[in-house]
Every structure is written in structure tokens, then in C-alpha cells.
Design a protein that fits this description.
The chain is of the alpha/beta class and 231 residues long. The chain has 2 domains: 29-97; 102-226. The chain contains 6 helices and 12 strands. The chain has helices spanning 2-24, 45-55, 65-74, 142-149, 156-159, 190-203, and strands at 34-38, 78-87, 90-97, 102-106, 109-113, 119-122, 133-136, 161-168, 171-176, 181-184, 207-213, 220-226. It has a 9-stranded mixed β-sheet with strand order 6-5-4-7-8-9-10-11-12. Strand 5 (109-113) and strand 6 (119-122) form a beta hairpin. The longest helix has 23 residues, at 2-24. InterPro entries: Cell_div_FtsQ/DivIB_C (IPR005548), FtsQ_DivIB (IPR050487), POTRA_FtsQ_type (IPR013685). Residues 105-215 form the Cell division protein FtsQ/DivIB C-terminal domain. Keywords: Cell cycle, Cell division, Cell membrane, Membrane, Transmembrane, Transmembrane helix.
Length: 231
């Protein structure tokens, strides 16, 4: 008889040990009642709003925050993302979208491009900026032209670039904001762009320049005449 009483006592205690926490964790106390979205995302605003709706009023123990965070980080439009359960009933979703560095014209459409040459949106999805346009026939060509542009990083010359495209297999043309064309290729070293920056700055003081060819040991310059001829 004592054995039976002891057995039921153990079973009762076991039931309480396992059932009370289970019921406790399902209380409304653990439900998401507020979702904060940080980072002022624009490209993902619709998706994040929907995510906020789906997580609202859900129990925190039923949500896989790591999986949601990983999914956000894999989005091509996202630079970084995090999800934090700041306090009971409050969730914060932080998203840093990629910064726009270039536009890419692929056939008849214009796309947004990040600093690494990756397309992450379409033209109207971001506020317009005065940045270079990379014109290509296929997306794979963007990075080869980007490799040329990065050689001008920290040079004033890069700020003057309006457009870049592949003319043919031996020539890449860079159009500056005043219409001057720089003829180059992937073999030209960074130092030569600094020299052409100085040359160009001097030439435009008195000349109208059609193009400067960097592909030879000596620069080839074609002038359209003196600026004084316009007077």
C-alpha cells in the first residue's frame, strides 16, 4: 500500500514538473505585442511590414528568430540585419539596406548596383543620385567595368564620370560629365588615371577635348579646338 501511495506521489510530482512550465510558457505574457522596425528601410518596407504582422501576437517560444534573421541577411538588398527580443512582448527588427553606388543599364532597363557590382534593385526603388552609369549587355560584365572604376577611387576624376561601357574587346570608353571620352582597357594601371586627371584638368582650361586615349605609352589627345572659338 505504501508503495502505491509513493508511486502516485512521484507521478503527481512529475506531472506538475512537466505540465506547469508548459502551460506557463504559453501564457499571453510571452506573446509579441509590439514590433519595432529600425533602419528606415525602403526597399524592404512591404516585406518587413508583412513580417511584423505575422509575428505580432505570436508566442516568442514559437518563433525561430535565427532563421528569420538569416533569411533577411540572404536578401540581395540587405547589407546587415538583426532581430532582438528586447523585452517580453517587444520585438525589434533592424535592417541596413545596401547603399547605391552605381546604376547599371542592362539592355533597356536600369538597375541599382552596390559597391561590389551586385544588382540589388530597379531604378525607381531608390532616391535618384548623381552617380556613374555602367552600360552592359549582360549582368556578368558589370564587375569588369567596376574594376576599371575602382582604379580611380579617391581621384577627382571619378567624380566626373558620367558613363562607362565596353566599346569593343580592346577598348572601354568612359564618358565624363562634359562629354570628354577616356579610352582605356583593363590593363591600364591606377597611376595612369592620376596622370590623365592632371592632363585633363590642364587641357580643358583652353581646349574642347573630344577624347584622351590612355592605351598607349604616350597619351593620344583629340581636341575639338580652342574654347575661345566659341566667343
Amino acid at each position: 500500500m505504501k508503495f502505491i501511495i509513493r508511486l502516485f506521489t512521484i507521478l503527481g510530482i512529475s506531472f506538475l514538473v512537466f505540465s506547469i512550465p508548459s502551460k506557463f510558457l504559453k501564457l499571453d505574457f510571452f506573446k509579441i505585442k509590439r514590433v519595432n522596425i529600425k533602419g528606415e528601410p525602403k526597399l524592404l518596407l512591404r516585406e518587413l511590414t508583412e513580417l511584423g504582422k505575422t509575428t505580432y501576437n505570436k508566442n516568442i517560444w514559437d518563433l525561430d528568430f535565427k532563421s528569420i534573421e538569416d533569411a533577411l541577411k540572404k536578401d540581395v538588398r540587405v547589407k546587415d540585419a538583426s532581430i532582438k527580443n528586447n523585452a517580453l512582448g517587444e520585438l525589434t527588427i533592424s535592417v541596413e539596406e545596401k547603399e547605391l553606388y552605381y546604376y547599371a543599364q542592362i539592355k533597356d532597363k536600369i538597375y541599382l548596383v552596390d559597391s561590389e557590382g551586385i544588382v540589388f534593385g530597379t531604378f525607381n526603388e531608390k532616391e535618384k543620385k548623381d552617380i556613374p552609369l555602367i552600360s552592359v549587355n549582360k549582368e556578368e560584365d558589370i564587375k569588369s567595368l567596376l574594376n576599371v572604376l575602382v582604379l580611380m577611387d579617391d581621384y577627382i576624376l571619378k567624380e566626373l564620370v558620367s558613363q562607362i561601357y565596353i566599346k569593343d574587346k580592346n577598348c572601354i570608353e568612359i564618358i565624363l560629365v562634359d562629354g570628354t571620352i577616356l579610352k582605356t582597357n583593363e590593363e591600364i594601371k591606377r597611376e595612369k588615371y592620376k596622370v590623365v586627371e592632371t592632363l585633363y584638368s590642364e587641357l580643358i582650361k583652353s581646349k574642347k577635348v573630344e577624347y584622351i586615349d590612355l592605351r598607349f605609352n604616350d597619351f593620344i589627345v583629340k581636341s575639338l579646338g580652342d574654347k575661345s572659338d566659341d566667343r
